[in-house]
Amino acid sequence: ALPITVANVTKTYGRVHALDNVSLHVKSGEFLTLLGPSGSGKSTLLMVLAGFTRPDSGSLKFGDHEVIRTPPHLRDVGMTFQSYALFPHMTVAGNVGYPLRLRKVPRTEIADRVDRALQTVQLDGFGDRRIDQLSGGQRQRVAVARAIVFEPRILLMDEPLSALDKKLRDQMQIELRRLHEKLGMTTVYVTHDQREALTMSDRIAVVNHGRIMQLATPLDLYEHP
Ligand code: ADP
Ligand code: ADP
């Protein structure tokens, strides 16, 4: 896996300080959750890590490498989005293979890797299905498969479970945590659900008004909220 070092990152939209001088170190192989209310800056920070948002200032390192100017598809990062952002007109295999086509991986290797990713999220045999034939939980799994298919060393997830009902959410929390342990990626996970953060994380960064207010283990946060 790969550690992440965010140093003095600032991003403003007009007068809104989406990120206000944020510094954060995520350890190699750690599961770190950004926890905070809507509008606190969690998604913006994740988009900076993924490379979709360029901050106004600050530095971002993956390991020893400064990546602030590295475009998303050249970063060692897989990401899932809140609304899954799947391509509805493509099959499951088409969606999951997309990051590999983007990286010009040979066709035969793509098929193998897509099968493996679908196995990992327990969707074996779903490659030919259309996205609109899938349940919410299955779509979420496809989004995860697409994020891990090129075996990134960093996985970013933006409220991946918010569209699911409670029972499925509880089940997926356990599955995603297991997946993290199995693949050993450095994981940054965004949620506004405190219970979810306490259940899944090695550490929790409490975000508010574009700042990290607290950084602690679930146990410490639980005892000193
Ligand atoms: P969240 O549910 O995490 O708060 P939002 O629904 O606020 O996310 O934002 C969804 C998308 O819209 C994101 O890509 C975000 O960058 C963008 N966005 C959020 N707020 C604004 C805004 N005030 N003006 C323009 N775009 C915004
Ligand atoms: P969160 O993910 O915690 O809900 P966001 O990172 O989406 O918060 O947003 C943080 C703040 O930045 C909010 O006030 C939001 O409206 C604003 N914001 C985010 N993206 C944009 C954007 N593309 N344009 C304008 N304002 C934005």
Helix content: 25-40%
Cofactors, ions, other ligands: adenosine-5'-diphosphate
- The value of Rg in angstroms is 17 Å
Placed side by side, the strands forming the largest sheet appear as: 6-7-8-3-9-10
Number of beta strands: 10
Number of helices: 7
The low-pLDDT segments are none
Structural class: alpha/beta
Shape label? globular
Topology pattern, helix = H, strand = E: EEEHEEEHHHEHEHEEH
Structural description of this entry:
- The chain is α/β, with parallel strands linked by helices.
- The protein has seven helices and ten strands.
- Strands 6-7-8-3-9-10 form a six-stranded mixed beta sheet, with helices on both faces.
- A hairpin with a 2-residue loop joins β9 and β10.
- The chain is globular, with a radius of gyration of 17 Å.
- The chain starts with a strand and ends with a helix.
- The model has no long low-confidence stretch (mean pLDDT 94).
- Bound molecules: adenosine-5'-diphosphate (2 copies).
- One adenosine-5'-diphosphate binds next to β2 and α1.
Keywords:
225 residues; 7 helices; 27% strand; globular; binds adenosine-5'-diphosphate
